[in-house]
Amino acid sequence: MFTGLWLGKGETMYNGNGNGSYNGNGNYTSVGGFRVKPIYLYVAGIIAVVVAIYFVMRFLDTSLVMHFGAFAGALLIVANLRELIGMSSSQRGSTALLNLLVGGGLICAWLAQFFGLLLWIPALLLVGIATPLIMGRANVYGTYITTARGAIDGLRRTVMK
């Protein structure tokens, strides 16, 4: 048995069990009932910290104008959703729909700053759908409502079969 230069007489490396572990259970940590090596926990922790730093840096890198736009979009959605659901008149409903679409576009544009270019597609679509409401509100609003009701009826018939 090797005692080494610094080990005393009768002392052995590995605490006498010969398998290279210091605590006798293979140096595993129990996480949720699973045995995991600590190195994997360290790697997962480092990855989580790097991802968190990435999102914080993206948040700080996004200009104040985009944060302002997201706040304005949230205000438009909150303020007009109740009015659109109530639909007291078609003119007010078309204005509420216009504001909801623009607010949704602003929120999607803000989210695209964090999660990538894919969210620019719904942002552009929402603003593109809102644009005709500026020109002829009552006619376009009626067309949108008729189209939405037809789509919902078609979906309902498809699901109920």
What are the main properties of this structure?
single chain; 161 residues; mainly alpha; two-stranded antiparallel ribbon; 5 helices
The separation of the N and C termini measures 78 Å
Q: Which descriptor suits the 3D outline? A: elongated
If helices are DSSP runs of H or I spanning 4 or more residues, what is the number of helices? Answer: 5
Quaternary structure state of the chains depicted: single chain
Strand content: under 5%
Structure notes:
With 161 residues, the protein is mainly alpha-helical. The chain has a domain at 64-160. The chain contains five helices and two strands. The protein has helices at residues 38-61, 64-86, 90-115, 120-135, 137-160, and strands at residues 29-31, 34-36. It has a two-stranded antiparallel ribbon. A hairpin with a 2-residue loop joins strand 1 and strand 2 (34-36). Helix 2 (64-86) runs antiparallel to helix 3 (90-115), helix 3 (90-115) packs antiparallel against helix 4 and helix 3 (90-115) crosses helix 5.
